Amino acid sequence: MKISNAKQFPVVVWVLIIGAFFARGTFFMVWPFMAIILFQKFQLSPWEIGLFMSLAAVSAVVTGFFSGTLTDRYGRKNVILAAGIISIFAFVGIAFANHIISYVFFMALCAISKEIWEPPVKVLISDSLPNTDLRELAFQLRYFAINVGAAIGPLMGVWFGVTAQQETFLLTAFSFVVLVLVLKYTFKHSTFIGQPTNLTKVTLKQTLHILRQDHVFLLLLIANMIVMFIYAHLDSSLVQYLTQSSTNNVIELVSFLIFTNACTIICLQFFSIKFLAHVSLIRRIYLGMFFLALSQLCFALNPIDFYAGWIIATFVMSVGETILFPNMNIQIDRIAPKHMKGVYFGAASFYSIGFASAPYIGGIILSAWSGSVLFCITFGLCFVVYAMYGLTQYAKRPNFEALIEKQIC
C-alpha cells in the first residue's frame, strides 16, 4: 500500500477526505468539552451528564442502520446531501439552545446526522475505488484527516478563546454548508456520482435475515461495540472524572489530551501503514487491542494529579487506536457483499451502542466508586474482545451466491 497511489483517487474521494478535516476540526473545538458545558451551564451531576450524552448517542444508532439500507436502495449521493443538511440544522440549533431539553434534542440530532452521514460516505469511497489497496489507503487517509482536524480544533479553540463555548458550533455548521455545496457541485460534474448501476432491492426483513446468518459479522459487531465502549471513556468519563475531582486547568489538560491523541495518530499512522503492510488484518487488530488494554491499565493506576500519567496513558491508547480503528472499517469492507455494502456499513453503526452507553455507565461508576474502578473494568473487557475476535476465525457465514440467485442480494 503506497501513499503515492493516492494520486489515483477521483475528485469525489478527495472532497470527502478534505471535508472530513474541516468538519471535524470545528466540531472538536467544542464536542469533547460537552461534559464541561453541561456541568457549568446546568449544574448536572455525573450520572445526569452521562445519561443525556448517552441518550443523544443512542438516538442515532438505529438511524445509522436505516441510513445504510437507504444508501443501497436509493444511492449514495442523495443520502449524503440529506445528512449534510440535517447536520447544518443540528449545529445551528445547538449553538443557540438555552434549555436542557432543547440542548439534548439538538445533541441527539447532531449524533443522528453523523450516523446518517458515515455509511454512505464509506460506501461511496468503496464504490469509487475498485482496487482493494486503494480503498484501504483512502480509509486510512480519511481517518488521518479526521485526526488532523481533531488535533488542530481544540488548540485553535483555546487560542481564539472559543473552546467549551456552544456558539462555536456555528463554525461547524458553516463548514458543513461549504462541504454540501462542494459535494453538490462535484456530484453534478463528476463522471462518477456514487450511484451504482444495480441498486439492491433487498427488503428490511431480508436484510435482517441475512445479517442474522452472518455469525462472523455478529461477533465483530459485539466485539467492536465493546471496543467503542472502552474508547468512549476518553471523551466522556475521563473528562467528568477530571472535572469532578477539581483538577486544576481541566480545560487545558483535556485539550492537551485530545491534542496528544490526534497528534499520535497523525505521526504514526503512515508509519504503521508501511510497517504493518505485510501483517494480516487479524494480527493488526490484535496488536491494536494490546495497546488499548495497556492504556486502560495506565488510566486505572494513574494518580489524579499526575498530569504526565494522563498524557502517557492517552499516548498508549492512541497508538492502539491508530492501528485498530482504520482496520475496523477495512474489516467491514472486506466481508460485505458487493451490493450490500451500505447495509453492512449501516449495521456497523450499532458499534455506537458501546459509545452511547459509555457516558451513562461511566457516570454511574464514577458516582458509586471511582475512575480507577472504571478503568479496571475496561481493562478486563479488552480480554473479552480478544476472545471474540478469535472466534471469528471459526464462525459461519451465509452462502451469498445462493441468496443472489434467490434475488435477495
From TrEMBL:
Its main location: membrane. The keyword Cell membrane applies. It is a multi-pass membrane protein. Keywords: Cell membrane, Membrane, Transmembrane, Transmembrane helix, Transport. The keyword rRNA processing does not apply. Pfam families: MFS_1. Gene3D superfamilies: MFS general substrate transporter like domains (1.20.1250.20). InterPro entries: MFS, MFS_dom, MFS_trans_sf, MFS_Transporters. The chain crosses the membrane at residues 12-37, 49-67, 79-112, 168-187, 216-234, 254-273, 285-304, 310-330, 342-362, 368-389. It is found in: Cell membrane. Residues 12-401 form the Major facilitator superfamily (MFS) profile domain. This is MFS transporter.
